[in-house]
Amino acid sequence: MPFDKFNSRLVYHMNININRFSNNGIQTGFIKHISNLYIVGEQGTSLISNTRILFELIINSQKIFSIIFEPMKQNDPLGNALEDYLNGNTSGKIIVKSSIAEDSGIPVDYLFRSEANMPELEKKALQLCYGNVLDVGAAAGCHALILKNNGLNVQPIDISEKAIQVMKNRGLKSARQADYFELKNEKYDTLLFLMNGIGICGELTNLGDFFRKAMDLLKPDGQILLDSSDIIYMFEVEDGSVEIDLNAGYYGEVEYQMQYGACNGEKFHWLFIDFETLNTYATRNGFSCELILEGEHFDYLARLKKV
Ligand SMILES: C[S@@+](CC[C@H](N)C(=O)[O-])C[C@H]1O[C@@H](n2cnc3c(N)ncnc32)[C@H](O)[C@@H]1O
Question: Disulfide engineering: 255 pairs with which of 37, 57, 99, 151, CB 3.0-4.6 Å?
Fold first, then answer.
């Protein structure tokens, strides 16, 4: 199997049931454990994402064995936190460990914020949305709910299965578990990435994929709305100068790990990007990039359009 072509974010694990038949002369046995089963196809793996797949070997109308592939259960602190909140535990905190700062906490209720409690950048982004809106990394659906109530057609997506359940329970019935980078054959007027949603790129090197996907998903007059921050201030030392390790890649590429109660997530990379760097990559990839609004803390809202 061409493992080198493996290009999926979902890992499958499998349950194997082997039905023994005493008279059919076929040797059967039990496979105890198979890890990292890679399914590779010319078009990637998106067609089978989130699907339960059943293979059966049937000989002379007798089932010899069946194999079931299921998406691996996610170790998902954020999803657990959202689910807990909806079940009435509204005081929880997600602990965030990062490569650039002391541990910090996100109060879970922030993910359920109302429009009145949103930063100005987010309120402005919501005002600028038009047409069919794809809300990427929608989490609890706080932005999608407002857009829906304003009469827009919104499609919230998230990779977290529990986030999707939470959104459905909050009335966002179209919420769908999906990875932005694997979407196909869909068209939108607005792609919305809020709370530093472009962070899903992880590293600058993934911006090419990000823009190629946006090019494909956007209608001709479509727009990307995103907020991010220039986190250079995190590298300031006492005398006010900035100390950056020039051998360590772009300073906005941060390693994170989240924890909620006993649930420890995997480490992941999250990208913060300053406006000039975003502008450079956008131009290189066929997009214009406009600074719409600056926040109070090195954050900004940008609108990008196909040139
Ligand atoms: C910082 S949270 C933002 C939540 C929400 N937009 C808000 O403002 O409250 C980022 C979200 O992106 C989701 N996510 C991460 N990678 C993703 C991807 N490749 N495609 C879709 N969603 C993704 C995470 O599961 C998480 O819910």
Answer: 99
